[in-house]
Amino acid sequence: MGELKLSKPYLLQASDLTTEDVKLIFDKSDYFLKHYKRGEKFDDLKGVTVAMVFFEPSTRTKLSFDIAAKRLSADTISFQSATSSLTKGESLIDTLHTIEAMGVQMYVVRHGKSGVPQFLQENTSGVILNAGDGKHAHPTQALLDSYTLYRHFGDVKGLKVCIVGDIIHSRVARSNIALLKTLGAEVTLCAPGTLLPRNRNIWDCPIIESLDDAVEWADVMLVLRLQRERMDSGILPSITEFSKYYGVKYEHFTRKPELVLMHPGPVNFGIELDYRLSTYPNCLIQTQVTHGVFIRMALLSLLGRDL
Length: 307
Known about the structure:
Number of strands: 8
Order of helices and strands: HEHEHEHEHEHEHEHHEH
Structural class: alpha/beta
Number of helices: 10
CATH class of the largest domain: Alpha Beta
CATH topology of the largest domain: Rossmann fold
Radius of gyration: 19 Å
Distance between the termini: 18 Å
CATH superfamily of the largest domain: Aspartate/ornithine carbamoyltransferase
């Protein structure tokens, strides 16, 4: 493959990516997907140290990045804020400089506050990859979601994607809206009014009020988890009522068998999704997880070329 580069030497948000960037990432992901053999490693990041800097809990994203880095022969370290000097009053920037002084060149960062990855990128000569910041952005999730659609349909352009559920609290929704539009998909939203932005025109996405109407319109249902940890009390009358009107049911898919189901995880089965859908033929949730490793391998490889 040629020595093409991404347009920016970091990844902070999905809007950083051009269509050419996405094609380069998808092509590199295809390469790794085709050539990876269990137990073997690529040499793309040999001699590079990657820090997993997670200030929030994570299973899929953290493990996926860690596996991706190790498959590229990187050395990895894991930073746990709860057991770090941050608990003793050390500032975030001093923590970054301490890790940097140990020879770390790449940082995979998740933080509960929006804007932290950008702040860190402005204060380091290393490479920051945003693994999720507050309600703001989760660009690698959007990339793996679009890559999954690209692999399933052959192209993302022209697809009708409905994002369902807790949109107002979701960095996944924000990043997917930006990237899907970049790639030419049609995007609509379906959620209770209290789980939509007050300014409904902020993303220029039509709102579909009824889940049944959303199912009829869509090629893909991208369902989101209810983020109760980010909610103010009273934002929903009850979880039961939300599930009744906005929970995706098995019957929705029996009426439209070609419909594709996606979810970034973790899934609250019985709330936003009927558990029977976990084994539905067009349920791509585990495929998303698999593709996440190869997308993150591609990003680490492309961003680590000049280190």
